[in-house]
Input
Amino acid sequence: MMVLSPGIALADFQVDLHYGSKGDDVIALQEFLTDQGVYSGVISGNFYSLTARAVKKFQALKNIIPTSGYFGPLTRSIANGILVDVAPVSEENATITPAIAEPIQVIPQVNAPIMGATTQTTVAPAVPQCIENPVLTLKKLPNREGRVNFFAEYSTGCPLDVHTKWSYTDQVGTNSEEISDKSNIWYLENKIENNVFYLRLYDENEQVPFSLTVGSTTKNI
Output
């Protein structure tokens, strides 16, 4: 339930929202997430995949752990704080943040070599460069409810760059994250283990095409 304070045009989130929630509270949440720049879908009042992804993005922006997509007490309190934090600041109670000086880097002086003196240069041995060979596997397994789980594994033969991007596109839209953004919620699980990126994604409907991209490698089903 959204509560309006008398004389103040502010709203207050008072109930937890999650995948499958519906109604005016979800409408208010979608409008709030739109204002925060993390939701671009239809204001439908239905809490499904797009809304869950937007909540996860908001949680990541506010350093809320875990980024589960569940709009619970912690996420609500931060959202309510943003809604309240709109009062104008007067000159009397304004605070000035002192400037932080950039630290000065002191470079030690190196004496010039004496004429005629010999210097010994040590050359570090060359480190063999790991040549990446990206391999991405993707399969889907329908479940008894007529929906589908997608399973994927990605490796390069080298240590994985944790900032590698992965994304998928289904009938709802496109989602993109870094492989180090670990999730363990009912519709999405991913982890890195022994330099292999594992992914399980639950989709609402068994529809094609489904496209998964990790790094520069793409698989379609």
About this structure: The chain has two domains: 2-84, 135-220. The chain has three helices and eleven strands. The radius of gyration is 25 Å.
